[in-house]
Fold Aspartokinase.
Amino acid sequence: MKIMKFGGTSVGKPDRMHQVAQLITKDDSEPVIVVLSALSGTTNSLVAIGEAMAAGSRDQAKELIDKLEAHYQSFIKELVKTDKAYAKARSIVSEHFEFLNIILKISFSEALSKDILAQGELLSTKLFSVYLEEKGIDHMLLPALEFMTIDAQDEPQLSTIKVKLSRILQQNSNKKLFITQGYICRNSRGEVDNLKRGGSDYTASLVAAAVNASVCEIWTDIDGMHNNDPRIVKKTVPVEQLSFEEAAELAYFGAKILHPTCIWPAQQQKVPVKLLNTMQPEALGTTITQEAGSVGVKAVAAKDGIIVINIKSSRMLLAYGFLRKIFEVFEKYRTSIDMITTSEVAVSVTIDHGGNLTAIVKELEPFGTITTEDNHTIISVVGNEIAQTKHILSKLFEALTPIPVRMVSYGGSKHNVSMLVPSSYKTQTLQLLNKGLFGLE
Ligand code: ASP
Ligand code: MG
């Protein structure tokens, strides 16, 4: 089986949906499971609707619901041609917006907000199915809520997913094309839930692992993962091949193309992941497999919004157990640390969200003098065995002579060197690295 996942922009316009139908029917050598996101912008609107309801602003929520409904009404006019298909699409849109309007009248809860968020993927898959039917393309809708489950810690249950999904597929072994919702799932209480924003990639990877797919294709609007951020540097090139480890580092450290959590299921089952471009289906894109393909620098990525916390204490001198006590504070506030540097009397760590910063600083105070600095960016240089690549550090530092590098992390992973710079230097840093490491402007 093959998995093909299409993101919001790939289904965001009727034309694009038509194109997706072509892409998924091109090759019929093996059965395909298609995973769809919500139409672009929809999940954001649903979040806003939920927030308005939570704040008790029903009028505002109603206004947002009506606006979204109007969007879908005009979407379906271009999506299908026949009266029969149009009537079907209309009734789907009405059904889901009726549901939102009913929710508006019920008192708001966390569980309800998840129901609201699920409407996007339910709508996109059902409407796509109507279009396929109109075109005479045989397929089956696979309801994600019947097989995609998460446990009490919100972690997907791959073995359960596997059992449930296999059963459904076996019962429908005469079908060759399946359409399912990304992002949505059921939680341990049986309620509708989701895999967090951008979670459709995760769905695709989980489904790929569950059915041991031959490939998991992630279709977006860029031709794969690039060596640098195309919004910031003039010239970038797609990276043809990455290992799962390299891809995980890049995704985590800011390359927006793939959701960081989505790598492990495919990696575990050794299902190759391909990043492909709906606008340029023939482009090679990026293939992610067990093997890295080559040694050396592949790409740089940047992660913004980093906060540095410095802990300075003479008590640390020759002491043991000091770091444990510090780490415990972060554990208590469920805040993960990205980078760390130590000297004999000081430790600096970075975190990527300041939600619990005040509380963390307060609890760290007994250990020494605490200072914090916000507005930093982690620049990660990623590549297979990069730490063993000759002259990598001299090349890096030479390229970055004008940059006040605040921290360096080298040797933690064989595939990554990370540097922390003030965010105001991010653009310049990425440009200098593009020239210094890749010879590109
Ligand atoms: N629709 C969801 C979101 O926008 C999931 C996804 O697109 O991956 O976050
Ligand atoms: Mg996405």
Remarks:
- The chain has two domains: 2-221, 298-438.
- The first helix runs from residue 14 to 25.
- Residues 277 and 310 are 43 Å apart (CA to CA).
- Residues 7-8, 37-38, 43, 120, 182-183, 197-200 surround aspartic acid (ligand 1) (CB under 6 Å).
